[in-house]
Design a protein that fits this description.
Number of strands: 9
Number of helices: 13
Strand order of the largest sheet: 1-6-3
Helix content: 25-40%
Strand content: 5-15%
Largest sheet: 3 strands, antiparallel
Structural class: alpha+beta
């Protein structure tokens, strides 16, 4: 964010000549195993529901490219397509475009479908008519703030990303801070808690995009099974998935933390001990922490 500065808020600096942004959303709710059941079972791995299928960057960007080309056939224009792929203020733009309002958890909300959707944009030099914003409907509800496992939502519309489990398990490159590890539970890639408790997500609809449906049983697979994947297994099974971008080492780091939060059992202890001498110091550190935590609990 520091590197790109105010370019985020100045579309014409990102795409010279841009005067409008066409915003779009695509529902991803994949169905599958009930999230609450997975979160309540410490033996299982919880993966954010958006990441259970194919990489949304590829799916949504391809669809937006087709749309931009069709517009170009009718009205030639200069354009560029984005899907969480550049310094773009996606939620703010979508809110300005009337696709919903920013909820207290900072995500976009819509009264008819909740928040389980991806956002994408077409920056264009066409002087299209403007659309109106919609009014917010969070009211006095604070369910998302209260539900955050790490207290990352520090106030309405304010998120401390350094405490967010999505940041800790996906974006963070180094060690996960020790005080936050017990709070992560069995979440190994992202977190949905603030969305799961949102009343507006009662109206969420299952996706009609087959690419977003769960792959490899990731909607409720056991942690020990995933922890024993080789790097070749990870690269093969996560091909085409957004999960692959964190890399194998971060994958093991995250699972080690989740195993440290599980109940001690011969299977869990054996899985961790099998990685105790891993070549990566990062993995070894988190395995040592997990083993020490389980031994202390016993």
């Amino acid at each position: 964010m520091a590197r790109h500065g105010l370019m985020r808020a100045r579309p014409a600096e990102l795409v010279p000549g841009a005067v409008r942004v066409i915003t779009a959303r695509l529902n991803y709710w994949p169905g599958g195993r009930e999230p609450g059941e997975v979160l309540a079972d410490a033996k299982l791995a919880y993966i954010s529901r958006y990441a259970l299928g194919r990489d949304y960057h590829k799916v949504l960007r391809a669809r937006l490219q087709v749309l931009a080309e069709r517009i170009h056939e009718r009205a030639p224009h200069g354009y560029r397509v984005f899907t969480d792929s550049a310094p773009v203020m996606e939620v703010a733009l979508a809110a300005k475009g009337g696709l919903g309002w920013r909820g207290k958890h900072t995500l976009l909300l819509d009264r008819s479908v909740g928040s389980y959707f991806f956002l994408g944009e077409i920056f264009t030099d066409l002087p299209l008519p403007l659309t109106s914003e919609v009014s917010p409907h969070c009211g006095s509800c604070s369910a998302c703030i209260e539900a955050c496992p790490t207290g990352a939502i520090v106030g309405p519309y304010r998120l401390d990303a350094r405490r967010c489990i999505s940041y800790l398990t996906i974006e963070l490159k180094g060690a996960i801070p020790e005080p936050l590890r017990p709070l992560i539970g069995n979440r190994i890639y992202g977190c949905d808690d603030c969305q799961l408790v949102c009343p507006w997500n009662r109206f969420a609809k299952s996706t009609e995009v087959p690419d977003f449906l769960p792959r490899h049983g990731l909607d409720g697979v056991e942690l020990c099974e995933l922890f024993m994947w080789s790097e070749a297994d990870f690269n093969e099974r996560m091909a085409g998935s957004p999960i692959r971008r964190i890399g194998y080492i971060a994958w093991l780091r995250n699972i080690a933390v989740a195993l440290g939060n599980a109940q001690a059992s011969p299977e869990v202890i054996a899985a961790l001990q099998a990685r105790a001498n891993h070549a990566s110091q990062l993995v070894r550190e988190h395995v040592e922490w997990a083993l020490a935590r389980l031994i202390e609990a016993e």
